[in-house]
Amino acid sequence: MGSGTGVSTTSVGSTGPTPDMGATTGTTSTTGTTTGPDVKCGDGVPGENFCFAPRKIVDPDVVVADLAVSDFDGDGLGDGLVAAADGFRVVWAEGAGAIAFEPGVLGTPAVAVAAMPPRNMAQRAAVAYEQPPRVIVHASDPTRVVGFQATIALMRDAAAVAGADVTGDGDTDVLVAEAGTDADVVWAAAQPGGAFASLEILWTGAAFGDLASGLLGNDLFDDVAFTDRAAGRLLVGRNDGGGMLDVADQGAPGTPMGVAVGDVTADGFADVLVADASGGRLVLFRGRSDGTVRPPETLAAMAGARHVAVADLDGDGDLDAAVAGTGSGSVYAYRYDPDEDALSFAAEIAEVPTGVAALAAGEMTGDGVADLLVAGAGLPGLWFVRSNP
Ligand SMILES: [Ca+2]
Ligand SMILES: [Ca+2]
Ligand SMILES: [Ca+2]
Ligand SMILES: [Ca+2]
User: Fold this and answer.
1) CB 9 within 8 A of CB 298
2) Among all ligands shown, which has an atom nearest to the Cα of 77?
3) Which residues have C-beta within 8 Å of that of residue 1, sequence separation ≥ 6?
């Protein structure tokens, strides 16, 4: 309901195979090895890298709430940042597809995680915890010792967390979309000593789906985008360097949940992608040079589309989109088709046994092609979906 004006629908049928909810490929491997039937390859241009294989990270079957990929020990390979029921955990990428899964740093449930840029040589992650609601900025060093840098007290539990330099002083501030149906997006400014100032409210009175940061337009000031799932809107906070975000309501069809920022249309300006859970669609807001976005275009995706991530999934240097939902355990890849000037369905690149609770993409193996981390929704478990298996 309530879709805005200017919404157009692009069929995926003419540009590739229609996503098939019923397709299965047998059981997913629950061992550390990968077998043939689990490898999924796209039907892309020959010579392009486009094959993935899932490997379940077992023992224990961790229940995951949120995921991110960032190089957390500074060795050049992306590591998995995991907000899990037993705390913040790290999937260390060790090269050539090898990984090591760390136990929880704290014994209390973590609900959201975001990558933060390094500060004072330390790699960082912002992790939201419950009981009491707070965000802890964890820092890590090359020996993989994970410690605490700062704690930010929240008013309530977090739905999502992101890092962005709101104030323009070069140090990344923390933003949190709080949980609930009448919640706030709050932010805390980084201070010179590494602590954070008290919370300020950016936006109030919404049911937030997700929060993401990125660089919209042609300036170099961090912007943010967040979804209001109840009111059906994308909210874009533009940063013009004045030390505050100017939030504009962009509308969004259906029940917007996951949001990601990145240039998926290959024109040099970042776009915003939103997963519409009730409509089962991926929604594209093309970014303009001034940092504003165009009206939404919707793409058929999957029932219960909930999560979206932006990364180079085929290794051609351009950003692609991965989308997953609670309706099935499939992850679909979309990529830009310059002939059609559209994002087109490219392939089903991963499948886990049940719906997807969290999704993140980033380069973890050193081959220049993004890999995926996928968390199961109905059954606990975390899968490392490796490029070029
Ligand atoms: Ca690393
Ligand atoms: Ca673009
Ligand atoms: Ca690509
Ligand atoms: Ca890779």
Assistant:
1) yes
2) 1
3) 232, 254
